[in-house]
Amino acid sequence: MTIITKAKATILPAVAGVAVLAGLVTAVSAQSVNPQETLDALTAQMQTKAEQAVKGGQTVKGPREGEVAFTGNVAAELETLRQQGSKAKSETLARPASERSAAVAKIRAFAGNPGLNPEYLSTAKSSYSNITIAEYYSAGQDYFEVNTKTNEIVQFGPAPVAKGQPVKVYNTEAKFTPEQLEAKAREFIAQNAPDANLSNLKASTGEKGGTNYFFRFTDESKDVEGVKAFVQVGFTVGGDLLSYTNTLGL
Known about the structure:
Order of helices and strands: EEHEEHHEEEEHEEEE
Strand order of the largest sheet: 5-6-7-8-12-11-10-9
Structural class: alpha+beta
Largest sheet: 8 strands, antiparallel
Number of strands: 12
Low-confidence stretches: 1-32
Oligomer: single chain
Number of domains: 3
Keywords: Signal
């Protein structure tokens, strides 16, 4: 079941299934020390508010069969609860801050900056695997996803940019050939994913605009959520690291 906010309406499948929201919301409130208790409380609040809105006629038909749209203040209140719930779910999955030091160390090594101070953002399922729990960090204009089981970096790339904020700028001056960039990619993978035996993986190259090159090495014998496991590195022709993804260990 999903909640979709459109303009001033929040859309929910018919009320009978509202209790299923427990599986969708995430986070912790100031009123409870126990994240799971907070999550349960937020879910109950959402269910009660949705049921009251239906009884009070504060709904219109949703765009699909079996959906109702909650309007006005109810829609806004449900969206606030959903956001709070999303945060609480993260807290139910999160490990203690004291156990994150290995992830921080891995990020510093990856960035080649022992003084880097990445900011912990949240804990959730991995972007690539529903059975892997990951932590998300930002450091300046960079964004990291770390596997909490192994502390290995699953993904690196530019951090999301708020409206009006400057985007990350890359060097696109042609300093390296595609062949030189592939050599850099292989060296980078050897440093950051030493268990990846590239000679046993299928290599492929992609490029964008003649300035960005992506080198992927795929394990044809292993699927992760229906996609072949892979490790990929992207560089600009100026030598700047664009992105890194490694699903081989998921």
